[in-house]
């Protein structure tokens, strides 16, 4: 349904709750301003209602989580059935049955589906925890502490993940408590080439950018230099960068990384917390490139609405962890929570339905086509894969314009459209809606964006 607003935005109840939040929550968590935020009350499909009963279109899926739509009936039924039986178990001592079933399912849909043998999983609560399990696995497997990660990459904000993060703003306040075992190298972006080259860049319409061979060679050279300087245990990369600005890499980029890792006996870790589970129009983004990792980190769309993540790896690699002798070397109180596992199993079944991936591809193509009808000097580039789409806002000199993106986000909220900004400069409008968004809703959003651009 299209937005329906009955109060000013934010409404009086949202404002009252925001004042409460400002008094009692750490001030560094929620951004508070005169026109921001709204307080969510309920949600269904692609719609969110706030505390004042205003109805919005959610173009974020709640940070790309509600892939199948908010409060999907199949997910709700899984919660109901499980909650009638068991809310909490002892994940690493006396686990629930759903934990075993989920680990089996994750093996089946990843490494077994890729004909790479069966997999073993560590379940976690948040995406950064899954990444940190991958980091620990790498060290246990090879004894090599060095890691290669990528500029503008985002892997969460735990202390281990902060070592990898390619957006300095998150890391700098804590630098004195961090070590130096990660080498950051450029991530290829044909619109903003990290090497200042443009000869390989193609305009919109191609499936993947056609990066100049020299750019990939430059990345390979920097990786080779890092390998010479320190012992590298793994390379950690997002197949497509999410928080970094919806960056779709050149087709040969992941192939290059796979080749380097095979040649030097280094583990390749894909962080698909953002891109996994059909967000890009295939079950995993790496399926689009035909390149597969040794370890896979998953979250967000895994459950469609519960804090559960997973580090899934080839069994012979995960077996670098010692067998438990009664005390787990890595665990959490809520590991393998029964509700989360039941939701994940139901969500995966929806992801595996034959219509899901083609539906995302079709809707994503339509959304891209509609966005590309927008013609304005402040739009630098529109890109995407499936329903992971970014529109980069620029100033008159082609530089990132985070202020313009923020203006559009705030203006959209006044019209009942929930948007997020991404990219290191905050200048990329990110579109990651629930898969059930309709063409009518996309047309409405596009028309409003055109209006905002005309006003600027």
Tell me what the structure shows.
This protein is of the alpha/beta class and 456 residues long. It has 2 domains: 160 residues, Alpha-Beta Complex (Aspartate Aminotransferase, domain 1); 277 residues, Type I PLP-dependent aspartate aminotransferase-like (Major domain) (Aspartate Aminotransferase, domain 2). 37% of the residues lie in helices and 16% in strands. The chain has a 7-stranded mixed β-sheet with strand order 4-10-9-8-7-5-6, with helices on both faces. Strand 14 and strand 15 form a beta hairpin. Helix 3 runs antiparallel to helix 12, helix 4 packs parallel to helix 12 and helix 13 runs parallel beside helix 15.
Quote the beta fraction: 15-25%
Class by helix and strand content?
A: alpha/beta
By CATH's scheme, which homologous superfamily of the largest domain applies?
Type I PLP-dependent aspartate aminotransferase-like (Major domain)
Mean pLDDT: 95
Largest beta-sheet details: 7 strands, mixed
N-to-C CA distance: 28 Å
The CATH class of the largest domain is Alpha Beta
**Low-pLDDT segments, ≥5 res:** 199-208
Please tell me what the overall shape is. Answer: globular
Pattern of helices and strands: HEEEHHHEHEHHEHEHEHEEHHHEEHEEEH
Write a short abstract of this structure:
37% of the residues lie in helices and 16% in strands.
What is the element layout, followed by pairings?
Layout: H1 12-24, E1 40-44, E2 47-50, E3 55-58, H2 61-64, H3 73-85, H4 97-109, E4 119-124, H5 127-142, E5 146-150, H6 159-164, H7 168-171, E6 182-185, H8 213-229, E7 232-237, H9 253-264, E8 267-271, H10 285-289, E9 295-298, E10 309-314, H11 315-318, H12 338-351, H13 356-371, E11 379-385, E12 388-393, H14 402-414, E13 417-418, E14 420-422, E15 428-431, H15 439-455
Parallel strand pairs: 3-13, 5-6, 5-7, 7-8, 8-9
Antiparallel strand pairs: 1-2, 2-3, 4-10, 9-10, 11-12, 12-15, 14-15
């Amino acid at each position: 349904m299209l937005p329906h607003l009955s109060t000013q935005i934010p409404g009086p109840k949202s404002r009252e709750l925001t004042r409460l939040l400002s008094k009692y929550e750490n001030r560094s968590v929620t951004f508070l301003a005169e026109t921001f935020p709204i307080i969510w009350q309920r949600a269904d499909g692609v719609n969110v209602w706030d505390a004042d009963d205003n109805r919005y279109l959610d173009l974020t899926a709640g940070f790309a989580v509600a892939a199948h739509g908010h409060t999907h009936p199949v997910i709700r039924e899984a919660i109901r059935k499980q909650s009638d039986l068991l809310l909490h178990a002892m994940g690493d001592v006396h686990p629930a049955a759903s934990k075993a079933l989920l680990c089996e399912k994750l093996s089946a849909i990843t490494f077994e589906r890729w004909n790479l043998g069966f997999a073993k999983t560590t379940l976690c609560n948040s995406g950064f925890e899954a990444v940190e399990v991958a980091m620990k696995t790498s060290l246990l497997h090879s004894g090599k502490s060095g890691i290669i990660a990528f500029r503008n990459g985002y892997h969460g904000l735990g202390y281990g993940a902060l070592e990898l993060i390619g957006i300095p703003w998150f890391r700098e306040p804590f630098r004195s408590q961090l070590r130096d075992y990660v080498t950051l190298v450029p991530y290829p972006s044909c619109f903003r080439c990290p090497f200042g080259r443009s000869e390989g860049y193609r305009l919109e319409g191609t499936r993947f950018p056609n990066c100049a061979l020299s750019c990939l060679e430059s990345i390979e050279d920097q990786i080779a230099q890092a390998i010479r300087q320190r012992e590298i245990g793994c390379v950690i990369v997002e197949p497509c960068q999410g928080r970094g600005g919806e960056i779709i890499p050149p087709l040969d980029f992941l192939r290059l990384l796979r080749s380097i890792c095979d040649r030097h006996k280094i583990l390749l870790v894909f962080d698909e917390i953002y891109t996994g589970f059909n967000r890009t129009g295939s079950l995993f983004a790496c399926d689009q490139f035909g390149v597969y990792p040794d370890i896979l980190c998953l979250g967000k769309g895994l459950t469609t609405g519960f804090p559960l993540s997973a580090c899934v790896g080839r069994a012979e690699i995960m077996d670098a962890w010692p067998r438990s002798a009664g005390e787990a070397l890595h665990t959490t109180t809520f590991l393998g929570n029964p509700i989360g596992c039941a939701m994940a199993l139901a969500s995966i079944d929806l992801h595996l339905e034959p219509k899901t991936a083609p539906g995302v591809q079709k809707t994503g193509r339509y959304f891209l086509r509609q966005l590309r009808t927008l013609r304005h000097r402040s739009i630098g580039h529109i890109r995407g894969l499936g329903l992971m789409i970014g529109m980069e806002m620029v100033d008159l000199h082609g530089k990132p314009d985070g202020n313009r993106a923020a203006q559009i986000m705030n203006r959209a909220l006044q019209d009942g459209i929930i948007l997020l900004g991404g990219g290191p400069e905050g200048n990329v409008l990110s579109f990651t809606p629930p898969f059930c968004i309709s063409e009518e809703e996309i047309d409405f959003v596009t028309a409003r964006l055109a209006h905002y651009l005309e006003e600027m």
